[in-house]
Amino acid sequence: MKMNRITLSIFGAMLLAMSAGAQNLNLPTDATAGQAVSIPTSGSGSATLYVYGPGTAIKQKIQLGEPIQLEGEQLKKSGRYTVIIAGGQDSSGSFFVSPAKLESLAFLARPSRVPASRPGVISGSAYLFDGFNNLVLEKHPVKFGLTIDGSSGGGRSVDSNNGVAWVRMDSGKKAGAAQFTATSGDATVNRVVQQTASDPCNIRMKAQPAKNGNILVETDPIRDCTGNPVPDGTIVTFTSTDQNGRSTVDARIKRGIAQAELPPSQSATISVAAGVVLGNEIHWGGR
Amino acid sequence: MKFILPVVLVVLLAVLVGMATVHTSELKPATTPEGAVQSLLSRAKGKDFAGAYNYVSPSSNTDQQSFAKDLNGRDGSLRTYSSLQKFNTKVLHENDTEALVRANVEWSTAVGAFYDVRDLKVLREGNSWKVVWPVMKQAKVPPQVIPVNFLRWDVVTRGSDDDWGAQNVEAPRVRITSMNAIERDGGTIILGEIVNEDTVPGFVAVGATLVGKDGKEFAQEESFDKISHTILPKEVSPFRIDFPGVKLANVKSVRMQPNALLVAASADPVMGVLHQRIEKDTQGRTVLKGELINQTGETVNIPHVLATFYDNAGRVIWVSDGYVDQALLPQTPVPFSVAVRDDLAKNIQTYRVTVNQYSLDRAQ
Question: pTM for the full model?
Answer without folding.
Answer: 0.76
